[in-house]
Amino acid sequence: MAYTISASGLRKRYGDVAAVDGVSFDVEAGEFFGILGPNGAGKTTVLEIVEGLRRADGGEVSVLGLPPWPRNPRLLPRIGVQLQSSAFFERLTAREQLQTFGSLYGVPAARADAMLEMVGLTDKAGVQVEKLSGGQAQRLSIACALVHDPELVFLDEPTAALDPQARRNLWDVLAGISTEGRTIVLTTHHMDEAESLCDRVAIMDAGRILQLGAPAALVRGLDAPARVSVASGTLPVEDARALPAADEVADDGVSLVVSTRDPGAVVAALAAKDALAGVRIGGATLEDVFLELTGREYRA
Amino acid sequence: MSTYQSFTSLARAMLLGFRRDKGALFFTVLFPLMFLVIFGGVFGHQATAKVTVVAAGPVPLVDRAVAHDGDLAGTLKVVRAASRDAALKKVEKGDADAFVEQSGNALNVRYSVADQVKSGTARGLLSSIAQSANLAATGRPPAYTVTEAQVEDRSLKAIQFFTPSLLGWALASAGVFGASQTLVTWRTKGILRRLRLSPAPVPTVFAARVAVSLGIALVQFAVFVAVAHLPFFGLKLTGDWWLAIPTLMAGVLAFLGIGTLIGSWAKTQETAQLVGQLVVLPMAFLGGSFFPLDSMPGWMRAVSYVFPLRYLNQGMLDVMGRGLGPGSVLVPIAVLLGVALVTALLAVRVFRWDAA
Ligand SMILES: Nc1ncnc2c1ncn2[C@@H]1O[C@H](COP(=O)(O)OP(=O)(O)OP(=O)(O)O)[C@@H](O)[C@H]1O
Ligand SMILES: [Mg+2]
């Protein structure tokens, strides 16, 4: 089966820094693929190599069956790219940006308005990009990447610097474009984003892929305990330790947290004691996966 | 088709960006125009009445000659003073170049040596008036005559000089800063990378910039000529003045080439701005934009030959200011196109898509 993206053994050095140090992965058609990692992990560099903006020092990459380097005009109309820092023409309005980028791909000017509508910027059509908020600019940047209806889309941290509300809105937009059969590659710092959007995630750190798989599978594979927490003081710590299936108990003065592999049993026992004030149940997350893989806290 | 579409939309994007940039509009159009208004206004009325003679009593011989000879009236101005003493005082103070009185058939001239050129001219003009009168008195046609034609008007009216020269400076700034700033901004803001990811052929990006700059240059030309044409300034375009247009187009290409070279090399806007100034300002001063090449000391004139702006100024001055023919712009155009070619080739070598 021909992969949409096939990369093997990619390497890139900047002086002493091995920005990408032997990265291999394949992306299938229609997949929503995430690259997750902290600052400096090498996410952008991997994308740049796959997009054809940088030449790898070593390794092989093919995109839609074509080599992206050197600049390949047959490949370019089929991919759409949102760069990490938005690239807009100065002093052009949102609509003019889309028209200009569109015309580079032979797209009729009328499509600009459809794109604005898709990312919810219709009322900002006549506003110059310099006057858009960070989130609006980010959405416009995504619209510019999609204006020519590409089969494969690269999004480099599309939700960086957005407030939680704007992030959720953007997730809806991204989920929408992915249902149209497009292949999407996205990088992010946010574990929750990768979990909720991506079919598969590559967790990267220091230029390498540490683990690759569906988010749920990664978390399950971790076999990490769930956490049940109630308000501090609801139950003495001793009593909590005696609960069935409780592995570890800690009270930080705000909440009492019970680690367990059977959250159902713990909650049932708490209910029997009428000690459910402020109960919350947290499963393991990709954050735990990262901690397990690197031995250090994830710092986005 | 798609190439053409890319070209027009990129050109449109650049033009809109330029039009909405108040700073760029000011510096490329209004700022040089202010210089034209100031220089044209201050120096504009200097070259008219060239020599002034003052008379206290009647000087019919001189009056008659001035009344009948339009050329003479343009160079010799006769003013009156209340008394002989007052008239002589005027000459001493330099308000007039010579004093003249007529007693019988004799013209009596007194002058000061403060301005030898002017008093010399005054004396020459007055004695030629006397001689023509002598000749006329004999009643015979003159045996020897002198026909004269101007080779080149050395004492060009100020506006005839400043219009093409300040325009040259304006074109040089617009070309150098337009190209270098666009390139650096587009690179640092990632627009170049974004364009590289689009299927638009690379040359269309540059072609669009060239087209926009040529358009802006024509606007600068039109505005300059329109303002200089106002009666207050009194620019006169004669003969093949339209040859200034191909000349300025060659100039735009040369300055875009220089700007592209700076923009390809410079990493930040500040560097590009600074280097641009370091190129444009000395070039404007030594290339004859603010004062005529003819009035420079020899070594300066020799240095001026290294500045492309010199050729643009010279070419435009010849056809717009002096009314000379096509021959005068051939060398300037050739030099400017050569500069454009060399800088473009160099720029291709140092060009970078990426900030790092
Ligand atoms: N142009 C460059 N020149 C030199 N070093 C670079 C360059 N680009 C990236 N690096 C280095 O390569 C490493 C990986 O950078 P990269 O931008 O790929 O990380 P990233 O995962 O995208 O980080 P972020 O989350 O901050 O965007 C970093 O150590 C960075 O300092
Ligand atoms: Mg990055």
Automatic annotation (TrEMBL), chain A:
The record's annotation in PROSITE patterns points to:
ABC_TRANSPORTER_1, ABC_TRANSPORTER_2
* UniProt KW ATP-binding keyword: yes
GO terms for molecular function, please?
Answer: ATP binding
Which UniProt keywords are present, listed alphabetically? Antibiotic resistance, ATP-binding, Nucleotide-binding, Transport
Cellular compartments annotated: Cell membrane
Mainly resides where?
A: membrane
Family recorded in the similarity comment? Belongs to the ABC transporter superfamily.
Membrane topology according to the record: Peripheral membrane protein
Residues of the ABC transporter domain:
5-231
For this entry, the protein name equals ABC transporter ATP-binding protein
Lineage top rank: taxon: Bacteria
Automatic annotation (TrEMBL), chain B:
Asked if the keyword RNA-binding belongs to this entry, the reply reads no
Question: Keywords, A to Z?
Answer: Membrane, Transmembrane, Transmembrane helix
Q: What is this protein called?
A: ABC transporter permease
Organism (species): Actinomadura parmotrematis
Regions crossing the membrane: 24-43, 166-186, 206-229, 241-262, 274-293, 329-351
Q: Pfam families of this UniProt entry? A: ABC2_membrane_3
Top-rank taxon, per record: Bacteria
Q: Where in the cell is it found?
A: Membrane
Give residue ranges for domain ABC transmembrane type-2.
123-354
What membrane topology term does the record carry? Multi-pass membrane protein
